[in-house]
Amino acid sequence: MLVFTASMSADHLMKSTSARKAREDGPITSRQLLLIFAALFILNLLLRVFYLRFDFVNGDEGVRALTATRMLEGARLYADIVTDKPPGTTFFYAVVFAFTGRSMTAVHLAAMVWNFATAMVVYFTAARLYGRREGLWAMLMLVYFSTNYLTQDMMAANTEMLMALPLAASFYFFIRACPESRGSALWLLLAGAMTGAATLFKQVGICNLAFFVAYEMLFIHQSRPTESTKRLTWLIAGARRGFGRLLWIAAGFTAVMALFVAWLAGNGALGDFWRYAIELNFFYIGSMPRRLWFEFMIGRTLAYVSFNAALWILAAWTVARAIRNKDRADERRLSDLMVGLWGAASLAAVFPGGRFFGHYFIQVLPALCLLASRGAETLRARLNDALHRRRARIAVATLVILSLFSFVRFHQRTAVLAFETLTGVRTRWSERWGMSEREREAESVSAFVRSRLQEGEPLYIWDYALDVYWRTGCRPASRYLSPYYITGKFTDSAQIEADASVVFWRENRAHLIEDLKRTRPRIILDVFGKLLELPYPEIAEFMEKNYRYAGQVGLNSWRRFLVYELKENDEK
User: Fold this and answer.
1) Where are the domains of the chain?
2) DSSP per residue over 201-236, as a string?
C-alpha cells in the first residue's frame, strides 16, 4: 500500500498524459514552434548584439580574458595566474580564444548563443512540467529578463550567466527522473554532474544540492498515508527511496569534482586553488560589516526586484496559489512547489557574498521564469473567462506598465547603441556613459604604453585597469591582476586594508615582489597614485630601489595613472 501511494504521488507530480498534451498544446504546431524559436533567437541577439563594440562590459570580463589568454600561453591557473573563482568561465573564454584568436567579440557572441541555450533548456523543462505554452512563456521571459537590469550586470559574459545553463540542465535532468522509471538513475547522475559543472563556474553552484535534499523531503511529506498506523512504514520506505536517489546525484557531483581535483593536482595547483578560490573567499565574505550586509540585502535586492517586478509578481502568485491549494493529487501544484523550492535554493546562493549585485540574481532566473510562465498562462486563460476577465485585464495592464518602465530605464541604452551602429554616428548620450569614458581612458593610456613597450612584454598595473593589458597585448608581470589579493580591501567592504601582519596577506606581498623581481617590467602604472602610501614597507622599499617616478598619463585627476620606470642600472 505504501509503495502504491508513493508511486501514485510521483505519477501525479510529473505525469504528462497524451490527452492533456493534446488539449493544451494542440494549437501550436511544430512549424509554429520552430518559427517562435527563431523569433526568440533573433530577440536574444537584438537585445545584446549592439554591445559588441565594448571589449569589457564588466571589469570581471577582463579577469576571465587575461587568465584564459595566459592559460593558452602555458601558464597554470591559480599558480601562475590567479583568479578567485573556479575555472569554468576561464575555460569558456579559453575555448573561444582557441578557435577565434584573442577576440572579445567572439566571446560575447558565444555568450549570446549560450544564453539562448539556457532559454531552450528552460523551455523543455516548462513544456515537460506544464505544456508548450508555458514553455514558450518561460523561454521569452528568460531571453528578456536576462538583459533587464544594469548593463554591467546583464550584458557581460559573466560567471552567473554562464553558470545558469548547467544549473538549468541539472534541474531538467532531475525532473526526468520523476517519477521513477527505467533510466532514472542515469538522469539523477546527470543532474548531479551538471550541479558539479555549475559549481566549476562559481562556488555557490553547490547550493543546488540543497534543493535535491529539500525536494526529497517534500516528496516524503506529500506521499504520506492518511492512516496514522502506517506512517512509520511510510517514513522508512520514503527515506530509503530518497537516500538512494540522493546517492546517484552525489555520485554525479563527486565524479565531476574528482576530475577537477585530478586536473589541479596534475598542474601542481591544488594548494593554490584552495588558497585563492576557497580561503580568499572566506576573507571576502568576512570583510563585509553586518550593517552594510543588511543595507545591501534590502536596498540592492529591492532595486533588482522592483525593476523586474512583473517577473517576480507572476512567480510569487504561482507559489502562493500552490501553497493555498491543498490538493495533494494536483500534479501542477506539486510541480509549482518543486520549482519554488529550486528557486529558493538558487536565491539562497545570492546571500553569502553580501554584495547583492544584479548579476548575482541571474542564477535565480530559470526558476523565476518557470514559475512566472504559469502565472502568465493563467492570466491568459482568465482573459477569456467572463468571471475573471475584469481583474485579469487590470493585472495585465499593471504588469505591462511595470515592464515598460524598466524597459525604458535600461534598454534606452540598447536603443542608443542600435541607432549609432546603424547610422555610424556617435551621440552625446553614449559619450557620457561610464563604459565609454573607461574605453577612452584605456585607449589613451594604452597608446602611451605601446610607445614604450612591445606586445608580449611584461607590464604591471596597480589597481583595476585590465583594459590596458588587453589593448596593449602586454603580459601581466605578476600572478595577481587585482590589488585585493595584496591588500584584502574588497569591493564594498570596510574602507580599510586587511591587517598587514596576517600571514596570508604577508605571503601574497612576498609573492608580488617575487613576481616583479623575476619579470622586471620596464613600466609600472599606479592607477590611483596610492601604491606608495600603503602600509607595506617591503613594497615601498622595492619600488624605491628599482623604479623612478616618470609622470602621469591619466585623463582625470582621480585616476592619474602614475608611471614608474625601471632603473636600468640597478642590479637584478
Assistant:
1) 2-392, 435-566
2) T-GGGGGHHHHHHHHHHHHHHHT--S-GGGHHHHHH
In a 10 Å sphere around its CB, with 0-12 CB exposed, 13-18 middle and 19+ buried, how is residue 281 labelled? middle
pLDDT of residue 2: 30
Specify the pLDDT at position 14.
Answer: 43
Q: Write out the three cell numbers for 86.
A: 573556479
Print the SS3 string covering 545-560: HHEEEEEECCCCCCCC
Global pTM? 0.92
Secondary structure of residue 562 in the 3-state scheme = strand
Which grid cell is 8? 501514485
Cell of 45: 541577439
Instruction: Tell me the mean pLDDT per 10 residues along the chain, length 572.
Output: 35 41 60 96 97 93 97 97 97 98 97 98 96 96 97 95 98 88 87 98 96 88 67 75 92 98 97 96 88 93 96 97 81 90 96 92 98 96 91 95 95 96 92 91 96 96 95 97 91 68 93 97 96 92 96 92 85 44
Coil/strand/helix, residue 459: strand
Name the residue with cell 597554470.
76
Q: Which of 159, 118, 163, 165 is nearest to 142 (CA)?
A: 118
Helix (H, G, I), strand (E, B) or coil at 526: strand
Q: How far apart are the C-alpha atoms of 57 and 54, rounded to whole Å?
A: 6
| Predicted local distance difference test score (pLDDT) of residue 137 | 97
Q: How far apart are CA 22 and CA 13, in angstroms?
A: 19
Cell of 63: 579577469
Q: 391 is written with which cell numbers? A: 481583474
Alpha helices in 74-179 (DSSP H): 88-100, 104-129, 132-145, 151-154, 159-176
CB–CB of 245/216 below 8 Å? yes
Other C-beta atoms lying within 10 Å of the C-beta of residue 306? 12
Taking the C-alpha atoms of residue 444 and residue 424, their distance in angstroms, rounded to an integer, is 22
